[in-house]
Amino acid sequence: MSDTSRGSEAAPLQSYDEAVEWINGLIPFGIRPGLERIEQLMSMLGEPQRHLKFVHVAGTNGKGSTCAFLTSVLMKCGYDVGTFTSPYITRFTNRFQFNGVDIPDETLVLLANRLYPLVKEIAAGELGSPTMFEVSTALAILYYATVSFPDVVVWETGLGGRMDVTNIVNPIVSIITNVGYDHTDILGDTLEQIAGEKAGIIKPGVPVVSCVSQPEAMRVIREMAVRRGSALYLAGEQFTYERLNGDETGQTFSFAGPFRSMEIGITLLGEHQCANAAGAMMALEVLRQYMAFVLEDDELLEGFKQAAWAGRLEQVSTSPRIVIDGAHNPEGAQTLAKSLPQLYSYRKLVLMMGMLSNKHHEAYLQHILPLVDTLILTEPVFRRKMDAAELAHLVEKLRPSYAKTDLEIIVEGDWKKALALLQSHTEAEDLGVVSGTLYLISDVRATLMHQTDSEKGW
């Protein structure tokens, strides 16, 4: 059956809510690494991904921020840019952006209806149903290849790289931000194994940029680049960066690459954002030098300065002062613990956190506990949430070695009540921080910024 005859059936999805409900209804099929189902979908659609230029971004942390830098600079320099990211912070459509604007609801419905019969057909076969993320990825490709036609698509991996659904594409440059311990249940529990999965996005002859710092991870990426005949641009080797100064309004770093050096200012906070911006800059240099992208200095610098990414060291309330940060793994916690005293002055730190049940929380807590005066443990509204009492048990176990002697611990499973407690405990000279899974960050952010249509999700 041809794609057109499949599409001629009456559209089963009549509204945005129905379309999103159908896609999210595929969540129970889980995360199933492998490309067979997305390959079949793309084949049925006539391989639309082949008509697009992708910048493929993988890594444990910093993917979203790197995508934000790339999108902002390329748009500022006059390019039409598609941006596909996950999870989303406010609304399902956040994943599919064109020039910084979400896909229109009616376009999402149209494309979901185009995919619906194909998904049903694959589900009836031996491969089983495509997952939510596979259908979202296919929808993104259709949006960019058949509706909006961007000059370049900034393309974030979902999980890992090698077997990630997004690896269906052949990019013009690949970026591996860093490697740390996250999703070890799927990616492996050594840095070499995780780096091997991330390095799976390296394609033959396609240049790759990385800010990976651990020797064992660097070795894996270097070996893969050699095997694939890909030019590798590694931080500390082919390019360097150094943070020059910064405060709670922004920071400046120097960048020195094979083609030129310059000073770059960014408003995203935390030393780690200098690394993300430097990786983005090196990728942009590759596009400029080898692929004839026209990136004027003034516009490029303005693009870096304007880049924003929700939920990353983002101050969302001034009275009391509350900062949200989606640190949810050990590396994220280490970065957060380093950034808070650098950026803010405060008398007491009041931290509210909620987690999913599948993460390395012990290492996370070891990094963050030494800073905290009052700890409020809560639960995100999500099927894989970690019980707040269970988290408290873990904190008590670590308390003698890592916590302040007078640490106050509050357990409140209802995140809305927990947020009220955070607000009441954070006095004028204090700093309130909400951290942990983005499912919690999303709800807190929507509440504090009075957004009524927050949906959140992976």
Automatic annotation (TrEMBL):
- Asked whether the keyword Metal-binding is assigned, the reply is yes
Under SUPFAM superfamilies, the record lists:
MurD-like peptide ligases, catalytic domain, MurD-like peptide ligases, peptide-binding domain
Q: What top-level branch of life does the organism fall under? A: Bacteria
- Every copy of the Mur ligase central domain together lies at 57-283
Q: What is its EC number?
A: 6.3.2.17
This protein's record includes keyword Acetylation:
no
Cite the entry's keywords alphabetically: ATP-binding, Ligase, Magnesium, Metal-binding, Nucleotide-binding
Q: Where's the Mur ligase C-terminal domain?
A: 311-437
Which family does this protein fall into?
A: Belongs to the folylpolyglutamate synthase family.
**What protein name applies here?**
tetrahydrofolate synthase
Query: Which source organism does the UniProt entry give?
Result: Paenibacillus farraposensis
